[in-house]
Amino acid sequence: MQPIFATQTASISELKTNPSALIKQSDGESIAILNHNKPVAYLVSTDMYERMMEAMDDMALSQTVSARMNDGQTPIKVMLDDL
């Protein structure tokens, strides 16, 4: 059994029939799209998608910072006023 990470679900047939109605019905929440009762996709609002992308960018930047802090090189102190 596969977990569903949404409070609402819809079939692919429902999505094909009236995608605008599903988006309106979602009220900004994600909808799991099911095919034969298994989730195959998620329909998310643009706001939620943008927040997810920002969170992923923040995580990637955090990993880069951590890697650079632990690379064994001596850090260089920089004053913002000098830039």
Largest sheet: 3 strands, mixed
Number of helices: 3
CATH architecture of the domain at 1-52: 3-Layer(aba) Sandwich
What is the CATH T-level topology of the domain at 1-52?
YefM-like fold
Structural class: alpha+beta
DSSP strand count: 3
Termini, distance in Å? 55 Å
Oligomer: single chain
Rg: 21 Å
Q: Return the CATH class of the domain at 1-52.
A: Alpha Beta
Give helix and strand order, one letter per element, not per position. Answer: EHHEEH
CA-based shape: elongated
* Beta-strand content estimate: 15-25%
Low-confidence stretches: none
Placed side by side, the strands forming the largest sheet appear as 1-2-3
Look at the structure and name the CATH superfamily of the domain at 1-52.
YefM-like domain
Organism: Psychrobacter luti
Protein name: Antitoxin
Family: Belongs to the phD/YefM antitoxin family.
Pfam families: PhdYeFM_antitox
Q: What would you say this structure looks like, in words?
A:
Pfam families: PhdYeFM_antitox. It comes from Psychrobacter luti. This is Antitoxin. Antitoxin component of a type II toxin-antitoxin (TA) system. InterPro entries: Antitoxin_Phd/YefM, phD/YefM_antitoxin, YefM-like_sf. The structure is a single chain. The chain is α+β, with helices and mostly antiparallel strands and 83 residues long. It has a domain at 1-52: YefM-like domain (YefM-like fold). Helices cover 46% and strands 18% of the residues. The protein has helices at residues 12-17, 19-26, 46-69, and strands at 8-11, 31-35, 38-43. The chain has a 3-stranded mixed beta sheet. Strand 2 and strand 3 form a beta hairpin. The chain is elongated. The model has no long low-confidence stretch (mean pLDDT 92).
